[in-house]
Amino acid sequence: MSAADRARKALSRLVDASATERILISTAALVLSVLIGAVLVLVAGRMTTCTAGEAVYYFGTGFCYDPVVVFDRLFLGALGDPLSGSWSPNGQFAVTLRETTLLIFTGLSVALAFRTGIFNIGTQGQMVVGALATALGVLWASSLVSGVVGTVVLIPFGLLVGGVFGGLYGAVPGLLKAYADANEVITTIMLNFIATGVALYLVSGVFKDPESAANQTVPLPEFAQFPALLFGGRQDFSLVALAFGLLAIGGLYYVLEHTAFGYDIRTSGVQPEAAEYGGVDAKRTVVASLTLSGALGGIAGAMYVMMVLGTFQTGIPSYGFDGITVSILAGNNPLGVGVAALLFGVLKSGTTVVQFATDVPPQLVGVLRGLIILFVAMPEFFRLLGRGLPGAGSKPEAVATDGGTVTESGGETDE
Amino acid sequence: MSDADRSEGESLLKRYSTRALVAGVTIASVVALLLAGLLFPDSLAGTLSDALTSRNTLASALRLSVPIAFAALGGIFAEKSGVINIGLEGLLIISAFSAIYVADITGGVWIGFAGGVVASTLLAALFAVVTIGFRADQIIAGLAVWLIALGLAPFASQVIYSSPNTPTVATTGSITVPVLADLPFFGALFSASPSVYMLFAAVFGSWYVFERTAFGRWIRASGENPKALDTAGVSVTHVRYAAVLISGVLAGMGGAALSLDLGQFTGNGPTMVNGKGFIAIVAYLFGNYNPVGAFLSTMLFAGLDALQTVLQLQGIGIPRQLIRITPFVVVILVLALVGRTRLPEAAGEHYDTEE
């Protein structure tokens, strides 16, 4: 009825129209990156040394690494070898879901900022800040409660602490962009370095666990960590955490599509001038979006501490940068983030399997991450490729599946 | 129209006055520090001014500024032509590794240097094809270049040397001008690595290209008013390709100089490049796209970095980990004060030739 509603309908039509194409492009980017990765593995296999017995032969040439084995391990290994008949929830599949859970949060963090037209490269730093704050906050609070009550109280408390501190750290580049016109790409990257440096200082000094050689805080008691339901405890995965992740996907989807704040965010991202003309406070939206984005990064840090490590240790893996890939792969759509996080979770978890099974260095996944971003960024390339293929427009079945993972999708029919 | 002119003029004034302010405050505080040091040689100010006037500080500031300043010069070429190259960090990483690798297999330091430049130029060429040929978003493609290099260099090092760090190779050594090298403080200018002299040449060369040659004017036009350049019969696409390739060459020289100066590539975490490519971007923004300005602001960052090393050696009681983040904090402060620098009019936009 209102102009806002009409604009929203027009916008959603536009998004729907390109959704198919976007999924095709993301899939093509993924496939192409994997193919290039295979070539890279072959080339690397020529450059390293191994005995003749270990080598594999393609086209009459010997290679030290076998890309078929690498990608078999990477994908089937990450799923816990579902074809071998000995699949169990305690295997590698739990690791994959653990990675997926963390990537959902960092992916959503990047996606939210992207939708406002902001590049938040600082999710990594926000995650570090959130993780450290959670480790310290929960450690302090764990002396007050214990047992099952402790778990029920401390986990939400830890997530809150991580979210608040991550959010505050995310607000810094937001304020700098809104009021000093400082480019957020640079400030967030600088803030990543600062977060890592300050965390190293604090954890190697004041907050260092005196009984550990590593730079880490005193470990949290068992009851202050996510409980392992159904899955074995050894893989540090908790279904509760994944449920939080799915809830976050649904929540962010709802906020973006069905609230006034979400409308402000989307219009600022698509048409900043029009948004301002329509009464959107651009400065406030920028700060709010980066704060919320930082909070999601901070929650990823809280999850990492309370589910995976049980303490804060320097050298947090690069989930924040992987979140950029996840978000770009998902077309910055919260529902897509779920699927992309699972895909990239497979890649990350599979890398460790590859490392056990072969000598291929684990940095391979870093290269794949860059390649995927590069290819998704050049849709023109795939349009050019697709022009020769008449069947390229066929609807892929993946469109419908991401709706199934969302718990709150019932709310979208009331228009 | 006159309103627009006035606001343009005002923002121009504001921009220059903030820059002048930052420069003024820097110079004033340095002078105050030196005076205080002269008056009270035993105080903290005395130690600081000793460190500031030591030729070791100048020597290491020059050494530290080499990779940043080369990358900044490269960034100027690309961005003036209308292509924002945020992948400078990746170009530095790939050239730092390739330089060591080529030097290791050939045994020649300068062959290694050339190898680094070639690797960086190839990656820049990929970036150019993706952004200019296939119209990819420049920021996202630049991030991809960074992340690809960040994965590829340690990957290659692990494959070849079974460690993310390479073994050490011979270094570039240094060139010493007799007599002049014995000067106090400024002697550091005359006893430095060859890459420092190459940097001086590159700064002057870039300045000359932009101010005195037709090619420099084309690059400016390609970023400011591509349509006019097109009308004048010069291909915008060709100019942009050339500018991005030059940025690859320059960044490659910086990366190669960085690793060959130490004789090793270290690839743990953010690698030995550790944000220098991003600091370079801020350096040229602060230097207002002027090669000399970019060099001077690089010296500001590198000088701070050099000073912290000297202070660490003298055991001033600031924790090492905190001193290490000063350049990053300064970058944010500078950005907050200078704010948005005026980007070239058409930077970040794709240009279609109308045939």
UniProtKB/TrEMBL annotation, chain A:
The chain crosses the membrane at residues 23-44, 56-80, 100-120, 132-165, 185-203, 237-256, 286-312, 324-347, 367-385. It comes from the Archaea. It is a multi-pass membrane protein. Residues 392-415 are annotated as: Disordered. GO terms for cellular component: plasma membrane. It holds the Pfam family BPD_transp_2. Keywords: Cell membrane, Membrane, Transmembrane, Transmembrane helix. InterPro entries: ABC_transp_permease. It is found in: Cell membrane. PANTHER family: ABC TRANSPORTER, PERMEASE PROTEIN, GUANOSINE ABC TRANSPORTER PERMEASE PROTEIN NUPP. This is Ribose ABC transporter permease. It comes from Halorubrum persicum.
From TrEMBL, chain B:
It is a multi-pass membrane protein. Signal peptide: none annotated. It is found in: Cell membrane. It comes from the Archaea. GO terms for cellular component: plasma membrane. The chain crosses the membrane at residues 20-40, 60-78, 83-103, 109-132, 139-161, 185-210, 239-258, 278-301, 322-339. The lineage of its organism: Archaea, Methanobacteriati, Methanobacteriota, Stenosarchaea group, Halobacteria. The keyword Cell membrane applies. InterPro entries: ABC_transp_permease. GO terms for molecular function: transmembrane transporter activity. This is Ribose ABC transporter permease. Keywords: Cell membrane, Membrane, Transmembrane, Transmembrane helix. Its main location: membrane.
